[in-house]
Amino acid sequence: MASYVVSHDDVKNFLNLPSMNDQEGIGFAYATDEAVLKRLIPAPLKLLAPVVCGYVVHMGKPTFGGPYLELNLFAMVSYQDKMMGAYPISLLLHGPGAENGMIAGREGAGIPKKLADMIDLRRNDNTATATVERHGKTLLKVDWTAGELNDPSIMQQFAGQLALNKEAEMNSFFYTYDLDQHPDGSNHFTNVELVATQLRSLADRVEPGNLSIDLQSTDDDPFGELKVLKPLGAAWFHFDTSVMFNTLKLEAVDAESTMPKLLTGRYDRGFFNPNATSYHI
């Protein structure tokens, strides 16, 4: 029976060991302008290469809600020149479990997640297409054709993570923070901290292929800034399991210099621009 008060077991189970199982779709990578991409990476992380990576997948069996579709754009970075991993720039979600996935990621782990208006992922034999729409624009369109990669050397970066039937570990870097409301009603970001979440995944299907990609922007999602200079390749893949099993608190960072690089991936401009309005029925 539904109740406003849940059991202590329910509290303990809230977002306990979140797992994104039965995950299938298109992974891709392309070369972009190094100066533009480097500008988006908050200190103390350092950009490893002028490459945008990403995926559009169907999350079939998440442990925190119903299935949903997800787009992720990320860069490969390093911390103190010894820990490497992914720094997500923007994730958009759509589908029955999208709200759960957004809350679990954004409030639970500091992941830059928002809701898309529509994400469509289709495969037909040896081709697949993914489109992502938001605020009246097709922000992303990705086409995959099974076969040879645009640039075969790109697979060297993902060989470990995409090794068939062998569990692989990967780090993802996020920034967590608190929002503190003062007596006068003003809000300030505090306790901004860099963390690394460790993910353990098992790929049981990987099909490399050719990538074609197009990006556009809205005022709230400036994807077009990450220009496609050269498509590097794509793959259709399936993760049987993908579990966030550990979080490392790395260091506190300066809120004033860090937060301007975090807000767009998490909130639309209506939160901080009084002239930003939209109407949709």
Structural class: mainly beta
Q: Spans of 5+ residues with little confidence (pLDDT < 50)? A: none
Major beta sheet, specifics?
A: 11 strands, mixed
Report the span from N to C terminus.
Answer: 33 Å
Please trace the helix and strand order, writing H or E for each element.
HEHEEEHEEEEHEEEHH
What fraction strand? over 45%
Overall morphology: globular
Instruction: Please count the beta strands (DSSP E, at least 2 residues each).
Output: 11
Radius of gyration: 19 Å
Discrete helix count: 6
Calculate the mean pLDDT score and round it.
93
Fraction of residues in helix: 10-25%
Structural commentary:
It comes from Lactiplantibacillus daowaiensis. Pfam families: ADC. This is Acetoacetate decarboxylase family protein. This protein has 281 residues and is mostly beta strands. The chain is built from six helices and eleven strands. The chain has helices spanning 8-13, 34-39, 98-109, 155-158, 255-258, 263-266, and strands spanning 20-31, 46-62, 68-79, 83-94, 113-115, 118-124, 127-134, 137-146, 168-181, 187-215, 230-252. The mean pLDDT is 93.
Topology:
Layout: H1 8-13, E1 20-31, H2 34-39, E2 46-62, E3 68-79, E4 83-94, H3 98-109, E5 113-115, E6 118-124, E7 127-134, E8 137-146, H4 155-158, E9 168-181, E10 187-215, E11 230-252, H5 255-258, H6 263-266
Parallel strand pairs: 4-5
Antiparallel strand pairs: 1-2, 1-11, 2-3, 3-4, 6-7, 7-8, 8-10, 9-10, 10-11
